[in-house]
């Protein structure tokens, strides 16, 4: 519901816009892996390929009514609008990892190739009523295609000398990105080569205590909706535009951790520092007709220092879980874009996961998270929280399980923003469908047990943004 007022605060236009949406999503996942062990379990070659695809269909209907008109009508007297949107994804990954003992330590090397295709089509049409002819909205209808090729190779070496342990590694990565806005023929191509070094140093204070120091560089590629240049809006006063010319974010991080274990519990307390270049943030502009445009850009540098606490516990045989809290101070500067884009703030987030064994082969799990308010270069993102509940029953000698899960059971996981500029203020609340019920059945062939080596590709860094 909107009211448009003159400078004298007299009513010019008043209208409401009502809408509903239907959404259908299909997912496909295939994976294949193979492992060869040579003269020992530490000397092996692992290969894996995976393919996943999804199709997302969204149908929306809007009705917009002008209740009172002034001398000039900014948009339409009255209309119906139908929007059909299809977004699809294809992702193929091939990976090979080789490791072997060497000089008292372990050498690991490998390569990985990934190809990702995403497409999004948007078709909107308007008409005065259901029985009339609907005409396409030419300024909104388009198709956007995104292709991404990433090839990488890494090498790392880890070893141990007395109470000291260490790891050194580097990953090289070449990325090519092509985007196309089909209806206009607009093309945008990017290609870049990067190196990502990483290092680890640990010291065993005692049998149950150790100190660890980590440092490395990583990349965070723009997500698809931030690149998509579609003019997307749910009402005529709020328009969102992606930016296909976005660059990745690059972060150099360092972290010092103290780890202690006692009984069946483990506590990890760490301090960290992160420096990020080309931070991607959205910002809002307002034109003379009162239309707000939300755009994305690499607008900032950020410096963040903080404390990270993780506690994993098993108080009894029937009660286990973990708690994590992250508190940090961050400075974000984007004064090259706008002199006012400079902010410092304190924030935090936490997670709580608890599992209770009600009876043999029947577990009840609670997962809760909270994120405190955080500042942006043009306002703030308000707090968010949510609770998931799951009940899992295992049977057939542990080879099968059935899980009933409800996500965001209290329907509190929604985004709230406050945008503040010199000439306007905007409060936004966005509530996705997060309260859902899921029923999952899993069967393990040949008593399959998932193997985890705990080491992402490249000795601590993986394909970020994939």
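^ structure tokens above, recovered residues below v
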């Amino acid at each position: 519901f909107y009211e448009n007022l003159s400078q004298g605060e007299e009513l010019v236009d008043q209208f409401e816009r009502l809408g509903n949406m239907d959404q259908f999503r299909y997912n496909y996942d295939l994976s294949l892996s193979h492992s060869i062990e040579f003269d020992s379990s530490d000397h092996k070659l692992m290969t894996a390929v995976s393919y996943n695809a999804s199709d997302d269909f969204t149908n929306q209907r809007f009705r917009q009514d002008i209740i009172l008109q002034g001398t000039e009508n900014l948009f339409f007297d009255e209309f119906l609008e139908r929007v059909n949107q299809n977004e699809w994804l294809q992702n193929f990954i091939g990976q090979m990892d080789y490791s072997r003992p060497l000089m008292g330590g372990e050498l690991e090397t490998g390569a990985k190739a990934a190809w990702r295709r995403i497409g999004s089509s948007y078709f909107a049409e308007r008409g005065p009523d259901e029985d009339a002819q609907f005409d396409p909205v030419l300024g909104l209808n388009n198709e956007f295609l995104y292709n991404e090729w990433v090839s990488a190779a890494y090498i790392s070496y880890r070893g141990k000398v007395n109470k000291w342990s260490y790891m050194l590694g580097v990953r090289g990565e070449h990325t090519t990105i092509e985007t196309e806005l089909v209806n206009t023929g607009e093309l945008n191509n990017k290609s870049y080569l990067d190196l990502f070094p990483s290092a680890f140093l640990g010291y065993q204070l005692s049998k149950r205590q150790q100190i660890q120091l980590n440092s490395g560089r990583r990349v965070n590629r723009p997500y698809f909706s931030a690149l998509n240049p579609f003019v997307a809006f749910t009402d005529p006063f709020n328009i969102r535009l992606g930016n296909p010319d976005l660059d990745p974010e690059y972060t150099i991080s360092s972290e010092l951790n103290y780890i202690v274990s006692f009984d069946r519990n483990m506590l990890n307390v760490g301090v960290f520092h992160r420096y990020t270049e080309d931070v991607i943030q959205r910002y809002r502009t307002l034109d003379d007709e009162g239309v707000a445009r939300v755009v994305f850009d690499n607008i900032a540098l950020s410096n963040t220092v903080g404390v990270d606490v993780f506690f994993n516990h098993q108080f009894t045989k029937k009660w286990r879980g973990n708690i994590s809290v992250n508190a940090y101070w961050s400075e974000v500067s984007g004064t090259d874009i706008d002199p006012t884009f400079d902010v410092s703030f304190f924030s935090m987030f936490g997670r709580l996961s608890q599992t209770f064994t009600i009876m043999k082969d029947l577990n009840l799990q609670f997962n809760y998270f909270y994120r405190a308010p955080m500042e942006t270069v043009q306002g703030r993102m308000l707090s968010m929280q949510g609770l998931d509940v799951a009940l899992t029953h295992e049977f057939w000698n542990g080879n099968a399980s059935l899980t009933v899960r409800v996500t965001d059971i209290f329907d509190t996981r929604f985004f709230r923003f406050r945008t503040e500029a010199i000439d306007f203020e905007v409060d936004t609340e966005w509530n996705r469908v997060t309260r859902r019920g899921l029923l999952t059945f899993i069967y393990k062939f040949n008593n399959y047990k998932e193997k985890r080596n705990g080491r992402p590709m490249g000795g601590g860094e993986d394909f970020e943004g994939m």
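The chain has one domain: 2-460.
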